[in-house]
Amino acid sequence: MQPLLKVEGLRVWFPKTTSFLGKPLTYVKAVDDVAFELPHGKTLGLVGESGSGKTTAGLAVLRALHPRSGTIEFSPDGEQVHELSHMTAKQLRPLRRHMQMIFQDPFSSLNPRMTVQQVIAEPLKVSKTGDAKQRKQRVQELLDEVGLSSAFLNRYPHAFSGGQRQRIAVARALALNPLMVVCDEPLSALDVSVQAQIINLMMELKAKHNLSLIFISHDLHVVKHLADDVAVMYAGQLMEVGPRKKIFDNPLHPYAQALLASAPTPDPRARGGTRILAGEVPDPSNLPRGCVFHPRCPRAMENCADIVPHITHKDERDVRCLLYENGPADQKMPPGPPPPLPGAKQ
Amino acid sequence: MSEPIIELSDVCVDYHLDEGVVHAVRGASYELFMGETLGLVGESGCGKSQSSYAAIGLVQPPGTVTGEILFRPEPDQPPIDLLKMKRNSPEIREIRGGRISMIFQEPMSSLSPVHRIGKQIDETLKLHTGPPQRNTFRWAMRKLGPVKVLMWPLIPLYPLMYLVDRIVAFRGERLDRLRRRRVAVEFLAKVGIPDTAKRYRQYSFEFSGGMRQRIMIAIALSCNPMVLFADEPTTGLDVTIQAQILELINALQRQTQLGVVLITHDLAVVAERADRVAVMYLGRIVELADVYTLFASPKHPYTTALLRSVIGSPLAADGRLATIRGVVPGPLERVSGCPFHPRCDHYMPGLCDKIEPDFAPADEKTHVACHLYNEHGKAHKQCSRS
Amino acid sequence: MTESDSYPPVGAGPGAPPPDFRGTVEMDEKAAEYYQLPQWKLMWRRFRKHKVALWMLHVVILLYVICLNCEFLAPYDPSAIHKDWINLPPQVLRFGFVEGSSLPRLYVYPFKMQQDPVTLERVYSVDRSRRIPIRWLVRGRKWTALGLFESNLHLFGVAGSYGTGSAAAPPGVPASAPATQAAASRPTSAPTTTSATATTPASGRAYSAPLARLARTERSDYPTCFLLGTDSLGQDLFSRIFYGGRISLLIGLTGVLLTFFLGIGLGGISGYYGGRIDMLIQRVAEVIQTVPKIPMWLALAAAIPKNWTSLQVYFAMTLILASMGWSGLCRTVRGKLLALREEDYARAALLAGASESRIIFVHLIPNFLSHITASLTLSVPGMILAETSLSFLGLGLRPPIVSWGVLLQQANRVDIVINQPWLLLPAVMVVIAVLAFNFAGEGLRDAADPYST
After folding, report:
1. Between A326 and A55, whose confidence is greater?
2. Would strands B100-103 and A317-320 be described as parallel, antiparallel, or unpaired?
């Protein structure tokens, strides 16, 4: 049984400076060599700070962006594998119903000119499922599922609070019965008590429809609550990915350790456990040579500034750190970046 | 630590709009002692920022402030009532920035994009620590009193007097300018900005979010205030940067015995850094206690429900989270009696929807505004039982 | 403001009351209705609060209504030449008693023409001995509306005049009021003026075909109501202003409509697709914008062949004016689209599988349509002024088409400013139209602009 999503070597580079004729000279490497797997029905938590590329990775996986290189293998039925990275828009259209997204900002993810009815029915209309009456019925069902009353159908988004809008966004994402939903920080714009409602809602719907979620967040507690696997990203690269329990109990990568140590816990008895990580998140167009984390790393060695570490597999996780690299036998990625895909935007 | 340096008593902030009156803050009372961090927690719209704006006179019309805010800069002097001062009078402007400072939420937009950051720190220092600016014209006007109305033909003399002032003060100003620059560079280093000489001349867009917040802290603390209001200083910053900023504020606080009011919606931040916590709901402070007591045994039902819905708190469950039923009422809606009663698990009909509970001590460590802990509630229980 | 969530309550302790929401969290009817209004209705409500803009919108609508119905409203034909009544000052409307009527009514004093026997100079003077009442709903010259509907009713007129000299006037009618009134109310049986065949004027002379156009003269002994005077050809300025207004205002509208389609079409394509198409379209737009407008218009207008009919010239002028205006709108639309393309709801539509054109036209463009409407309303006065300027310089529309610019072009001389200042009144109309559009457009823009979603 194939995993629902398998990503290897994903790179999304945006041209920064171009030569006079338009050829790109330098790039902003938003996502650089990211690889993970998402089995059916599991949740992957993608954590990182600003500039880590987690949102870009989520968009790239959904093919809302064109990746520069890498493979995205999507298998909705578990048997047939579709390779998404160089598909055209037309080829992607039948697959789009299986993967949907919930956005971060509830105030801009709903079209202010459309009523709730139109917003939720839009995926149905575009994919031409059912006639108007069936669509209306389905919208009604979806509203019930997310816990909103049907009096809301004819209202415009400016009538609703953040939590309610996020529910409408969830209803829209579920309209086509997708298998995979990428949730891009759906809770950060919400109040604390509303966050709890939305978390409960998502857990319930995930169990009911057997959804696979890619949950992107910077809040480690939420990820700990929801995710089965956790991937930690920094400056566009994947630092560590593995089962949740392993990562939270015993993080291997120094960045993961620092991240977990910096995150405050809402429990005053846990005070004093924070360790401060010095330095700033690097500028994505001017990343450090070698390991991107080495300027801030408390355990940096001399050759961390020269060698880009490969991903090694240790203790059920994939780690990108020279501390754990043993030799060619443990390397999973070949050295050097692969050539760009044909048709990739330069 | 006997007398609080800031004491709010029954402060109300109302905004009189066309659509109605919005009661942003309804009777908030708290105290801040020297060297302590008071965490002011609440969800959006609960009035926590507005109560601190009231303290330094940032509430603009159509907003009005009533109540009493006492500020005790010297222990043996009588306290100053900040609300008695006229808006933008020289008195309040001396306090604002010099004695009581504030840092704001959005580091991206809190600094002026068209001035160099060194100039921005310099401005605060000039206003509060420099020698008073010569202004002969104004002195003359003040001396003349009511007669000055008859002197209107002399208005063209003003530019001349201004020029004379500037020329006379020029040399003294130069020395002061050097002193200010030294202090500003020192503060930039203190807040952890590397390469200060170069950074002094840079613009705010050349800095990252965390750096900008540090610059804000430098501006706020450069005149050694006694109180710092930190309005959501780390919302929008990364977790690691957040830890840095909070640690920085703590370190500076320890150096100067600064009192900090930490306004945030993040309970984790408050649990890490605050000494005492005030929980606000709909413009009222519903519970005020020290941080350990609040998290271990919250008294007010709102605090309890809030703690149960935050992941990682001692009361939160592992699976399905507890939620608070209902939604926060809108700013123009009026709720009778206790503002939380439509959503409360311990609602007592006949009491909670009619009488608003006072903010009173429940035991020696906690102040609560809830009928469960006052005589009304006890009487009600007696009645209902009998 | 928001309705209570119907999500089932969790965490209610034992003994908690059932979840009926006591407290004021119900939304009343008015608020519920408010939240169901689409954006344009909300915009209209905001606009209505802006009193000045609302009044100016009324003025604009009034202008258009007047100018579109100018055949009915104007007493005279714009090209009717009254060869005996040239350079007359306005006949001021007065209110008072006239013979033959018991109630006070509007009237005018007619003119008397005397010819100096020595110099043969014509001297006109106001004849205050007679009062000519203004009659309402008189029958006069025939007119057709849109080629469908024919009538010869005019809103007002003076008894005895036919509005425009259809040369077939009933013979020998004296200037006494009752008789002329009877004559005026009898529907004319004469054919309309554009017949090339000779028509018999009251004097009985026949005119040959080329002179038939000149035969639109009116009898001099009929009373006249030149409310705003006449020009050097004896044409009534009041009627000409109305007819001219129609042309000027419609040029503004059609020019703006063309700009609208061109701007949105090209801007939409370039904004959404980006890349080379975007670069190409934007460079073209920039080149067009950098070319100085007035010389370009002059050049294009001068290139219109002289033998084109009025209608062709009119359309050519519209095209010329719109050809420069679309670049500004194109840039605005492109800028907006570039920003909106990255918005989450556009992405959500893309992820649902919507085609690009659907995203542009169904999702993105309606979001700033209100802004576009406001800026288009603000560009109509520019078009009106451009047309007026060009015609004033003699390079746009030319007689026999009447527009405000053409009227002003005939008032282009110092001696006219001194001796016949009433000929400058079309300028006042231009000012009114431009001001009204500007105020209304500003009001629309304020209503559309800081939009809270």
Report:
1. A55
2. unpaired
Query: Where does the pLDDT of residue B40 fall: very low under 50, low under 70, confident under 90, or very high at 90 and above?
Result: very high
DSSP B340: T
What value of ipTM does the predicted structure carry?
A: 0.84
Give the tens place of pLDDT for each residue, B90-121. 888 888 888 899 998 887 788 898 999 999 99
How far apart (Å, rounded) are the C-alpha atoms in residues B114 and B203? Answer: 7
Q: Which residues contact B100 (CB under 8 A, 6 or more apart)?
A: B6, B55, B56, B71, B225, B226, B227, B228, B229
The structure tokens listed for A95 are: 């697959």
Amino acid C182: pLDDT: 36
Residue C349, Ramachandran bin (φ over 0: left; ψ between -120 and 50: alpha; else beta)? alpha
Gap between the Cα atoms of B338 and B345, Å rounded = 13
Determine the average pLDDT of the residues in A165-194: 91
Residue A158, pLDDT > 70, answer yes
A&B contacts, CB < 8 Å: 118
Spatial separation of the C-alpha atoms in residues C433 and C385, rounded to whole Å: 10
The sheet with strand C105-108 has its strands ordered as C94-96, C105-108, C132-145, C149-158
Quote the mean pLDDT of chain B: 87
Could you count the other beta carbons within 10 Å of the beta carbon of residue A60?
25
Contact B305 C11 (CB under 8 A): yes
| Beta carbons within 10 angstroms of residue A204's beta carbon | 14
pLDDT tens for each residue of C364-399: 888 888 778 888 888 899 889 988 888 888 777 888
Lookup result for tokens 């929807």: B353
Task: Tell me the average pLDDT across C162-184.
Answer: 36
The residue among C189, C231, C247, C250 whose CA lies nearest residue C80 is C231
Cβ C104 vs Cβ C95: under 8 Å = yes
Interface touch C348/A172, C-beta < 8 Å: yes
User: For residue C257, what are the CA distances in angstroms to B62, B369, C325?
Assistant: 43, 64, 11
Q: Do B329 and C23 touch (CB under 8 A)?
A: yes
Which of C348, C352, C452 lies at the smallest CB-CB distance from A158? C452
Q: Pull the structure tokens for residue C239.
A: 């009627």
Q: Which residues of B touch C (CB under 8 A)?
A: 305, 308, 320-327, 329-336, 341-342, 345-347, 349, 353
Residue C26 pLDDT grade (very low, low, confident, very high; cuts 50, 70, 90): very low
Yes or no: say if A314 and A325 are a contact pair by the CB < 8 Å rule: no
Cα(B16)–Cα(B25) distance, rounded to whole angstroms?
Answer: 13
The pair phi, psi for residue C408, each rounded to 5°, is -70, -25
Q: Which two tokens stand for residue B127?
A: 């206003």
pLDDT digits (tens, 9 = 90+) for B163-221: 988 888 887 788 888 899 999 999 999 888 888 888 899 998 888 888 899 999 999 99
C207 falls in which pLDDT band (50, 70, 90)?
Answer: very low
- Which subunits sit against C, judged by 3+ Cβ pairs under 8 A? A, B
Q: State whether residue B186 is helix, strand or coil.
A: helix
- Chain B CB contacts of A207 below 8 Å: none
* CA atoms of A317 and A319, how far apart (whole Å): 6
* pLDDT for position C450: 54
Residue B205 near chain A (CB below 8 Å): no
d(CA A298, CA A255): 9
Measured over all CA atoms, what is the biggest interatomic distance in chain C, rounded to whole angstroms? 118
* Assigned token pair, C349: 């539509």
